Amino acid sequence: MSSLITINRLANCNVYLDGSSQLGRCEEAKVPAVKYTMAEHKALGMIGKVDLFVGIDKLEADFKWASFYPDVMPSVCNPFTATALQVRGSLQSWTDAGLIAEVPYVVHLRGTFKEIAFGEYKQANPAEFPSKFNVTYLKCVNDDVELYEVDVLSNILKVAGVDLLATYRANLGA
SS3 of 93, please? Predict the structure, then answer.
């Protein structure tokens, strides 16, 4: 008899900065949570109010570097040049038979760093180097399947490969 449930686990990741692996260098990575901005609509004849989509709130990622890395600083410190980041993990699927699948889970980010720390120091503890990343592009891919893509500067919003803003861009003449 086969298992009734499958459990997915994503327990670790690696960060890539402009294509270079940061394996062992980043302690924590927090990719953006997408928050849709909504506008309330109420009108005569309606029995209630409704919130309607009007855009996407700013996207921000957080990274906590395990130490100071001089080779990372040119990408992190330049607010005028976009940086490409990837957060890559291995998504495991488990059943009562054990591990049945392991596929790549990748979040692609592009933007600029907006907050850079040059060290938070405590006696007898390693220094901490947190940074905040202003995200203008985000794409989530699971096992080579594009699940979600947003490009704020190009008015692109795709869910499962479907371009939700194609008509909107055409109406704007873009």
Answer: strand
pLDDT band at 1 (very low <50, low <70, confident <90, very high): low
What are the percentages of helix, strand and coil residues in the chain, rounded to 5?
10, 60, 35
Q: Find how far residue 13's CA is from the centre of its chain.
A: 13
Q: In this predicted model, what pLDDT tens digit does every residue of 80-101 receive, in sequence order?
A: 999 999 999 999 999 999 999 9
* Burial zone of 15 (CB within 10 Å; 0-12 exposed, 13-18 middle, 19+ buried): buried
Q: Radius of gyration over alpha carbons of the chain, in Å?
A: 20
What pTM value is reported for the model? 0.91
- Determine how many CB atoms are found less than 10 A away from the CB of residue 91: 16
Q: In this structure, are residues 29 and 89 in contact, taking their beta carbons and an 8 Å threshold? A: no
Amino acid symbol at 123: Q
150-162 confidence digits (pLDDT tens): 999 999 999 999 9
